[in-house]
Structures are given as structure tokens and as C-alpha cells.
Amino acid sequence: MVCLVTSSSQHPRAENAVKSILDFVEKTSPRVEVKVLRLNEAEIEKNVAILVKCILENKEGSNVFVDISGGPKGLVLTLYVACIITGVEDISLTLETTGERIKVPVLPNPFAGITEKQLQTLRYLPSTVTALSSRTRVSKVAALKLLQRLKERGLVTVRSGRYEVSPVGRLLLSLQEVG
Fold this sequence. Notes:
Shape: elongated
Structural class: alpha/beta
Strand order of the largest sheet: 3-4-5
């Protein structure tokens, strides 16, 4: 399976690249399925969740190789984040200027070790410590500790005593919805 990621906003150069890849795969490996994902560049959290699901569906029993080349930068970044979350270890980048392929360092999955209680807490936000304590039926001290751990992981932010889900936290929740 080849999964080709491109923008939902069609651009002649990008469309020519998609057509060239489809033609190449058809001529060289006609049994290989090519799935073209057209993603809205502005929907980063949703795109990462879609790509994580696609990678996990195709990772089963096979190696996943990702080549991040060309295309809008938002989609490239989105694909990179999806690779981190799914544990892809072999990521390369082909430089547009020289055509050189370079290895990209892979970061650890930032969501490893997230508990169900932490996920449930994120779903209850935005909230104050007092309201969260009441809703989850735990002491204020326990609620505050839980929120502090989530804040340390970058999953929540605090504004005027009110805890809110951060962009990273929203990504985690989006992954839960897609999965």
C-alpha cells in the first residue's frame, strides 16, 4: 500500500506530481494499491489523527517507510507528527534544492503513558479545580495534582484559574475520536 498525502486545495504542480506517482506505480508495480489522501492543511489535529489511523492500519505485519517530500509544509509537518505517534522509525526527507535524501530524527511519542483518568480529565475541560473535583468526585488536592501533571506534559494550559485543553491535548483527544 502506498499512501500519498496531498492538499485538498488542488494545485497544478501537486496534481501533476500525484498523476506521475500513480502512473509510475501502475507501470512498475500494478498490484500495489495507491491511496490518495487529500487533507485540508488548516486542520492539523484532524489530519494527524487520520494519518495515524492510516499508518496503523497498514503497519500490521509490515515495515512502514515514509518519504516526506514536497507539498505544503503543513501536511509535511502533520505526517511527521503522525509518524512519531505511531512509532515509525525510518523517516527521510528529499531536499527540493538538491534532491538529496536525508534521514530525519524521530522524537519519542509524547502520549506514551497517558492514563484513562488523564484522558477523562481532558474531556471535562475547560474547568476550575473546584468544578473538576466535584465532577470527578476526588479531593481538590487530587484534582490539582492531576491537572498539574497534565500541564507538565503540555496537555493543558491555565488562564485565570481555569484549566483548558492545549493544542497538544486537543490532538490527543482527536486521536481518541478517530481510533
